[in-house]
Amino acid sequence: MGTVRFQKPTAAFVAASWAALIIGAIVYLLGLWNAAMQLNEKGYYFTILMYGLFSAVSLQKTVRDRLEGISVTGIYFGLCWVSLLLSVGLLAVGLFNATLAPSEKGFYAMAFLLSLFGAVAVQKNVRDIAAYKAENPLADDIAATE
């Protein structure tokens, strides 16, 4: 098997990834802030967002570790999958049972999923940039002098 070569993600993809994460999370949180819900209900949706973001990043990291030959136990890999699916499932059950308008339910679901996508893409970019810099330590110096 040949040597793995890492490509640096484009600035546009890095910016789009950060924008997806930040916009998704901020819009979701602004929706919670302005919602006419009890505080415990807002706490439930906030916790699901945090749990979902953590589990998505953790799953992306374990998948990447396995691809790069870094040892990841099967139980941790499975736990990451269960956590991600559980966070999505908890959001779905919460929204299904919520006394919100269908448009509000869709708003929370889409902002949540945008946040998860952004978190995974940002984590991927962080890993790709670090791997690229490790493989090409003079790349930034060369680009700065051109």
TrEMBL record:
The keyword Protein biosynthesis does not apply. GO terms for cellular component: plasma membrane. One of its GO terms (biological process) is DNA damage response. Keywords: Membrane, Transmembrane, Transmembrane helix. InterPro entries: YiaA-like (IPR038972), YiaAB (IPR008024). The keyword Calcium does not apply. The chain crosses the membrane at residues 12-31, 43-63, 75-100, 106-123. Residues 13-65, 76-128 form the YiaAB two helix domain. It holds the Pfam family YiaAB. NCBIfam families: PRK11383.1 (NF008482). PANTHER family: INNER MEMBRANE PROTEIN YIAA, INNER MEMBRANE PROTEIN YIAA-RELATED. This is YiaAB two helix domain-containing protein.
